[in-house]
Structures are given as C-alpha cells and as structure tokens.
Design brief:
- Chain B: Residues 43-404 form the Imelysin-like domain.
- The complex is a heterodimer of chains A (345) and B (426).
- Chain A is mainly α and 345 residues long.
- In chain A, 66% of the residues lie in helices and 2% in strands.
- Chain A has 13 helices and 2 strands.
- Chain A has a two-stranded antiparallel sheet.
- Chain B is globular and about 70 Å long.
- Classes of the chains: A mainly alpha (345), B mainly alpha (426).
- Chains A and B meet through helix 1, strand 1, helix 5, helix 10 and helix 13 of A and helix 9 and helix 14 of B.
Chain lengths: 345, 426
C-alpha cells in the first residue's frame, strides 16, 4: 500500500525511525542518565500498577452492587489507569516488549473495530470469561479500549447493560488482567534494572523512545484523525473516541515525558553543553501540557466545532514545535534517522 | 537487547566500519557495480515472470467469463495462485525502490473493505470505521456517492478502477490489484477460524435468470477490467527494469553510485523481513487473533504469499532466482560481496535465510496438508498453540535474519538505510 499507511500503522508495532549511527556524542558515563531514567520510569510503572489494582477493585465493587455512584467511580478509575499507562507508554523497550504487552494494554489503531467485535463475542457467549481466558485471548479484548467499549459504547447505552452478569463478568476479567499486566510490568522493570543501567545502548534507546512519542503524537494521534495528514478527518482514528477522552490521554503522555523522560535527558544535554536546549525543551513541554489540560477532553466531538477544532490545531502546532526541538536534541546527541524497517501496509 | 520477539532490532546501533572505498575490492572479487547490475536483472526477470503469470490469469478469466462454470472458475483460481508466486518474490524489490513502492498500491493493497466492490454478508462484514466507500458496491451501482461527491461509474474500465483505488482518502478502498481479483474469484471467507475459504459460485458470472447475487454482467465487466489493469501495470514495471532502455528506472538506478544500489537492496530485504512480513502480516494477525489481518483472506493462500515473500529476500541476497520455466538465473551476488569482507557473517546470514525458508516451509506444509490442512486463518485462532508456534517460529527467524542484514549493511558501508530522511533535518 502507499506510503501514507506507513505512518498510519507504524504505531501498532511501536517501531522507531531513529538509529544511533556513528559515535554517540554523549560521554561514556551516561550511566547517570540511565540511573535517573530507571528510577523515574519505575515510579510511573508503580503508579500504573496501583491504578490497575484500584480499577479492578472498582469493577468488583460496581458489579457487587451496581449504582450510579459506583459507576461514576468506575469510569474515573478507568480513566486514571488509562492515563497512568499513557504516562509511561513512551517506553518501548524492556519488559513492555514481552508478550505484546503494549498491545495488551492498548490495541490501537483499530480501524476495523476488532475491539468491538471481540467484546461482542464475549457478551454473546454463554458464560463470562475468567482472567486466565482473557489472558489467552486476542490483545483486542485485553486492554483499556475493551473496557472503554463496555463503559461507553452505544451498544451499552441501555440502562443496566453493564450490570448484566455477562457484561460485568467480562468487565471484571478484563480489569483483573489489566491489573496483572500492570503489576507484572512494575515488577519486571525492577528486575530489568541492572541490565538497563549497565547497557550503554539503552541511553540512545531511551532518548529515541521519548522523541518518537512526540512524532507519533503529532502524526498519528493528532494529524490522522484531524485530517491534517492527507486523508479526510475521521474521528474514529482518534484514540479513546468512544469516551471522547483523546485529549486527556495526550495530556498524560506529555506529563509522563515531563516526569520520566526529562530527568535523564537533562544531565545528558548538560554534559553536551546544551543546558539551554534542555531548558527550552522542558519549557515547551510544560506549556504544551498545560494547553492540553485546558482543552475539551475529546477529539472527535471537536471536528464539527470550529472553535474546538482550532484549539486542536493549536495543540498540533505546539507538538510539532516540540518535535522540532526533539530533532535538535537528536542531532546534538548524535542520533540520526537511520534504518527504519517499520514500513508496512 | 533482550527478548526474542522484539520487532525492531533494526533501529539498534549499526556497527560502523569506515565507509568502504569501492576500490577496496580486489579484481577477482565481484564488484558492487556488478552486484547492483545483477540485482536489476533479478528484478527484471521476477517482474517478467509476474507479467507472464498475470497474462495467464487474464486468459483464464476470459475463459471464465466466456463460459462460467465450476471448471473455468477453478482454473482461474489456480492461475491466481500461480500468479502470486513470482509477484510475492518481487516484493523484495518494493521497499527501497520508489518506483516499485509508489506503484504497488494499485496491485497489492490490503486489507480491503471489499464492500466497495461487490456484495458482502450483511451480518458478517466489518469495514474500516468512518470509511464512506466501504459499502459502495461498484458492481451493483452505476453511480456512487463518496464524501459528498457523486461519481458516474456506469462503465467499469481499467482507468476508472485505477481512479477509484483509495477513493475518499481511505486505503481500505481497494478497487484494483490481486486482492480485488481474489475477492471476485473467491468471495468473502465466511468460515472465520474454521476450515474453508470463500465460496463464490461460478453462477455469479452467468447472465439472465441464472445469474446469482445480481448484476452479473457488471461483475464480469469489473473482473475483466481489473485483470486487464493488472497486466498493463506489470508491463509498465517490466519496462522500468528492462536493459538497454534510455529512460527507465534501471538506468537511473545504475547511474547512482553502487553504494546507493546496495542500500536499496539491503533496505528492501530488511523492511520486507521485519516490518512488513514479520510484523504487519504475521504478528498483528496472531496477537489480535484477527482474520481481517490475514493477507490472502478470501482464498486462504496466505501461507504461499508469506513463503514467496521470504523467498524474494533470499533471492536478493543469493543473486539466484528460480524462474517460472524452471530455469535458474544467477550472477554476482550480495552474498559474494559480503563474503569478501566478512566470510563468517556471510555464512551466518546465508544459513539464517535458509532457516527462515525452513520455518515458512513448515507453515506451508501445515496449510497444504492433505489429511488435515491448517491454513493461516486457523493458525491464528485463539488457543491454537500449534498454529501460534508455527507463526512465532517464522517471526523469530525473520527477526533474526534482519539483525544480520543490519550487520551486513554496516560491513558494506551502508550507514543510512532509509531511502530519504523523511523530513528530518538532523
């Protein structure tokens, strides 16, 4: 298929286009940066594990005694955990690579509505699945988008739909699996610590993971659904379109970069004599995150609202500027665009 | 770095040797220029075979349309399966050569929203969300509306179909190419993860009262036109690689420094191995248990498409191509070039390419087993551990060979594997 699909589908594989070619410009002892990253990323995985546990508890509480209050709490806990995942989603190496865990948490993009169909299959089954069954099933039914379907899809709009035994059983099984995945990630990240800290090449891998996230925010999470990437606007291409929370997720990704990516990046740039560049990047990141935080939570509903659409375009431009700074950083650190085997249609 | 199923070893550091001066090759070794020239010969022969097989397919389709029946339909289907053999091998030339990559969308675009073309089951069809063309049904309608635009499609010509490809900006709107033809020959596969493929009856092409599913004349016209278009598209590509032409892609490629040719060769091998075949065509389908992500989903010929993709990668490296007529084309190879620099790495990569063919051979054997065939869509069923193992082994072999392709690039002085900088100015 043509080149457009390249960008469109890259994210499913989490492939990056930056390669460390030639001698890196950062010093041998980037171990300090890695130590900071290991700590700050570990903190974020711990938060994800906690939020997953809370979500699972909330699912049980709702199913035990479904009422409006518990339902509201469940939706909040779902969003909290989904946001906790966004904050650490930029890490595309280490334990997250096992068993397609990134897809397990969030199968996206899902242009053919696999999530909806896999969830429907379970809703129409004779008995709800166990956590173990979900763990062996399609990645499309294992993550936040599957729960989003149960909580927000129009098929679930009938009063009491979620409280029905089959739906509630599925809700609890998927939440339980998500909690397990979060706990495993937090644990495995700690076990991964020595190897990460001792392996020089993870410095480049971490930098490119952070910068790649900005590119994918710009190209896939905004330009594609907004219709700024060549094809017409299509709200279904946004993440979290069912709940209209796309912008909240973007905001959390930016917050995660602030908390977990900057701590190692700063000393790296300082060593290269680029403190100012680090300051500029940090300031732009903060401003962009604040901007996102002030915006309406969804993306698709804003496509038909000129004012909200212009906000989204503004955010898109801001993230583009961040990406540009990211490319300056990559150049400064000796990262060049290189072998990109991620083409695909 | 750890974990075997990582689908991105290529982004890792390329061990850089100093850019190898081309004069470093002794005169009795093959030269990079010879290798790149032979690569163009390989491409030419592969596309020639793809054209020959497409012409046969076109003839079988004419037979089918002249006398629709089980036999003529079976013969057309068989010709389609044959046509995939050389075409899939040509995919190793796709990434890296813009002339191929920019062109192939009209031939092999996938996955498709087949409701654009013809009837689909109302309760068993999932199209791309938000795709305005997903149920346009060109066979049943002489005018269609997409994105507020009304289009006259009364006459189904090759030109019209080419214009309709990716209409409305959706890549799922595939109006042309192998998979459109596949759909018109087989129809939707309604069997999910179970045995069985598309069951389109030959009577879908009968006229008058015998016509099933309506609009048989237009369906026949569509199939006729789309098959003609495939032939003319392949003719064009053969001409791009033909020797002794003044103004074609081959000339442009050979006018570049040989290092650029080597880059395109290696980039094509790595991209097809990893991102495309291991990733898009196998891992996505398996991890999501998604028959929508099966490559040849109507015919269940996916195992062959995968097998011959990998064969194409091996061809580029070994410089050998077994032609449709059974003869073998061979010449100065990338393998020989690498062996002169690093015999050990050449031996490793050669055996890894063999190992990949063995794994995909297993997949092919399982799918073609006479007693109890397990096709790709059965392998990806939830809980099918044997099927998952077959696919995972193939993915792992492809990931492994890609790591060596990357090393080979470094050894041969190819440091910048991307065809362009994709807008990055650093």
């Amino acid at each position: 298929m043509s080149h457009r699909s390249l960008l469109q589908r890259l994210g499913r594989l989490g492939l990056a286009a930056l390669t460390l070619a030639g001698t890196p410009l950062f010093a041998d002892d980037s171990a300090d940066a890695r130590a900071r990253w290991h700590q700050s990323i570990g903190d974020r995985y711990a938060l994800l594990a906690e939020a997953g546990e809370q979500l699972e508890a909330s699912a049980h509480a709702y199913c035990d005694a479904p009422d409006a209050e518990r339902r509201a709490r469940l939706e909040e806990d779902w969003l909290d955990a989904y946001q906790a995942w966004q904050a650490v989603r930029f890490v595309d190496f280490g334990p997250i690579e096992q068993q397609s865990r990134a897809w397990q948490l969030q199968f996206w993009p899902d242009s053919k509505n696999l999530v909806g169909r896999k969830v429907q299959l379970w809703l129409n089954a004779e008995a709800p699945p166990s956590i173990e069954t979900i763990a062996d099933d399609s990645v499309a039914v294992q993550g936040f988008p599957a729960l989003e379907y149960l909580l927000f899809d129009e098929h679930m709009a009938t009063p009491g739909a979620l409280a029905a035994p089959q739906a509630c059983g599925l809700l609890q099984a998927v939440s339980g699996h998500l909690a397990d995945t979060g706990a495993a990630l937090a644990r495995d990240w700690q076990a991964f610590g020595d190897h990460y800290r001792q392996t020089e090449s993870y410095t480049a891998a971490t930098v490119q993971a952070g910068l790649q996230t900005l590119e994918s925010l710009e190209d896939k999470r905004l330009a594609e659904p907004l219709g700024l990437a060549g094809s017409p606007a299509n709200g279904y291409r946004a993440e979290a379109w069912r709940s209209a929370r796309s912008v909240r997720l973007i905001e959390s990704s930016l917050a995660g970069l602030q908390d977990s990516f900057l701590p190692g990046l700063r000393p790296l740039l300082a060593e290269a004599g680029q403190t100012e560049l680090a300051d500029d990047f940090a300031a732009a990141l903060d401003e962009t995150r604040r901007r996102a935080a002030d915006m309406a939570p969804g993306l698709a509903p804003s496509l038909d609202d000129p004012e909200a659409f212009s906000d989204l375009q503004g955010l898109y431009v801001k993230i583009g500027q961040l990406s540009w700074l990211g490319r300056q950083i990559a150049g400064t650190l000796g990262l060049v665009s290189g072998f990109n085997a991620s083409d695909g249609d | 770095m750890p974990t075997p199923f990582v689908l991105r070893p290529l982004r890792r550091a390329i061990a850089l040797t100093a850019l190898l001066p081309l004069s470093a090759f002794a005169s009795d070794d093959v030269t990079p220029e010879q290798v790149v020239t032979h690569y163009a010969d390989l491409a030419h022969a592969t596309f020639q075979d793809a054209l020959t097989a497409a012409r046969t397919l076109d003839a079988r389709i004419d037979d089918l349309l002249a006398a629709p029946g089980d036999e003529t339909l079976a013969a057309a289907r068989q010709a389609w399966i044959q046509a995939r053999v050389p075409y899939q091998q040509s995919e190793a030339f796709r990434f890296g050569n813009p002339v191929v990559d920019d062109w192939e969308g009209q031939l092999n675009a996938w996955p498709l929203d087949e409701g654009l073309i013809d009837y689909v089951a109302a309760d068993d069809y999932q199209h791309e969300l938000g795709n305005a063309g997903a149920t346009a049904n060109l066979v049943a309608n002489t005018s269609i509306q997409i994105g507020g635009e009304t289009l006259d499609v009364s006459e189904l010509t090759p030109e019209l179909l080419a214009d309709l490809n990716e209409i409305g900006g959706s890549e799922a709107n595939v109006a042309t190419g192998y998979h459109a033809i596949e759909f018109l020959l087989w129809g939707q596969d309604r069997h999910g993860f179970e045995a069985g493929n598309g069951e389109r009856p030959a009577s879908d092409y009968l006229s008058g009262d015998d016509c099933t599913h309506g609009h048989c004349d237009r369906r026949g016209a569509y199939l006729d036109a789309v098959s003609d278009l495939l032939v003319s598209d392949l003719e064009w590509m053969v001409a791009q690689w033909a020797p002794n032409e003044d103004d074609n892609y081959r000339q442009a490629l050979l006018a570049e420094p040989a290092s650029e040719g080597l880059r395109r060769m290696l980039f094509g091998m790595g991209s097809l191995s990893l991102g495309e075949l291991a990733g898009e065509r196998m891992k996505v389908a398996l991890a999501a248990n998604s028959v929508e992500d099966e490559h040849d989903c109507f015919s269940d010929n996916t195992h062959n498409s995968h097998y011959y993709d990998a064969q194409g990668v091996q061809n580029v490296y070994s410089g050998e191509y077994r032609r449709l007529d059974g003869s073998t084309l061979s010449g100065p190879s990338l393998s020989a070039l690498l062996a002169a620099e690093d015999p050990e790495l050449d031996a490793t990569l050669s055996s890894q390419l063999e190992a990949t063919m063995a794994e995909l051979g297993e997949l092919k054997r399982a799918a073609e087993d006479k007693a109890s065939p397990m096709t790709f869509d059965m392998m990806i069923a939830p809980g099918n551990e044997d099927g998952a193992a077959l696919i995972n082994d193939a993915i792992l072999a492809l990931v492994t060979q890609t790591g060596s392709i990357e090393k080979a690039a470094g050894t041969l002085g190819v440091t910048q594997l991307q065809p362009d900088d994709a807008g990055h100015d650093f």
